[in-house]
């Protein structure tokens, strides 16, 4: 039996940390779907056509420190607007969601488009300022030189592009549980997410 937890929300809201913790707690597999778009975005930055990149992604495309960087994030949100690119990534995500033993997928459109039948849907948010602070700390911890204003601008620009695109915009599903992490510690946010999943099992 498959059991799918869909976790959506804007950039740096805490989806990744919550997803990993939920997956570890319940023994579920985890897919960060943002990495797929980042991988396509990085290949576009290297000169490839986004659709052919999306159609030929391999596991090796998901390696490398720069995949998590801000330049690749911007490229990801640009290729993510292209309906054919999104379509090329659907089957892989759905197959992952259907695997036996349970799966957590995090992204922007998991509860709305990829897995509308997911047993649990969470929409994780936080104010843009809080998200920018968290992302700045993450990037600095990796040794990347940047500043708060640049990170806040990146977060806002991607939020706008992700929310306004015509195909699979970032949107809370009608039946999603909203989790605003602006004033929550990571432990508290994780505990709430685990409680929502527990209630649905
Ligand atoms: O980690 P962060 O929240 O900053 O971004 P991400 O989840 O790695 O996603 C990078 C970009 O990929 C987003 O800004 C979206 O444009 C796109 N994306 C998407 O369109 N659909 C998804 N399911 C996941 C990511």
What would your notes on this structure say?
This protein is an alpha/beta fold and 201 residues long. It has a single domain (4-195), classed as P-loop containing nucleotide triphosphate hydrolases (Rossmann fold, 3-Layer(aba) Sandwich). It is 53% helix and 12% strand. The chain has nine helices and five strands. A five-stranded parallel sheet has the order 2-3-1-4-5, sandwiched between helices. The N and C termini lie close together (12 Å). The model has no long low-confidence stretch (mean pLDDT 96). Bound molecules: cytidine-5'-diphosphate. Cytidine-5'-diphosphate (CDP) binds next to helix 2, helix 4 and helix 8.
Say how many strands there are: 5
- Looking at the structure, the CATH topology is Rossmann fold
Count every helix, treating DSSP H or I runs of 4 or more residues as helices.
9
Structural class: alpha/beta
Average pLDDT, to the nearest integer? 96
Query: Order of helices and strands, N to C?
Result: EHEHHHHEHEHHEH
- Share of β-strand residues: 5-15%
Helical content stands at 40-55%
Strand arrangement in the largest pleated sheet: 2-3-1-4-5
Q: How can the largest sheet be summarized?
A: 5 strands, parallel
CATH architecture: 3-Layer(aba) Sandwich
Low-pLDDT regions: none
């Amino acid at each position: 039996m498959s059991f799918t937890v869909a976790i959506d929300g804007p950039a740096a809201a805490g989806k990744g940390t919550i997803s990993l913790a939920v997956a570890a707690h319940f023994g579920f597999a985890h897919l960060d779907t943002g990495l797929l778009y980042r991988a396509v975005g990085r290949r576009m930055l290297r000169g490839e056509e986004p659709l052919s990149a999306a159609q030929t992604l391999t596991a090796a495309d998901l390696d490398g420190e720069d995949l998590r960087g801000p330049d690749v994030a911007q490229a990801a949100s640009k290729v993510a607007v292209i309906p054919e690119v999104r379509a090329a990534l659907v089957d892989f995500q759905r197959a992952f969601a259907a695997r036996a033993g349970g799966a957590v997928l995090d992204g922007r459109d998991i509860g709305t488009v990829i897995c509308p039948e997911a047993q649990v849907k969470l929409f994780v948010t936080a104010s843009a300022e809080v998200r920018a602070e968290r992302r700045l700390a993450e990037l600095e911890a990796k040794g990347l030189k940047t500043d708060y204003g640049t990170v806040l601008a990146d977060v806002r620009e991607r939020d706008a592009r992700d929310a306004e695109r015509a195909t699979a915009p970032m949107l809370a599903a009608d039946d999603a549980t909203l989790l605003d992490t602006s004033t929550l510690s990571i432990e508290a946010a994780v505990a709430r997410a685990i409680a929502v999943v527990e209630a649905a099992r």
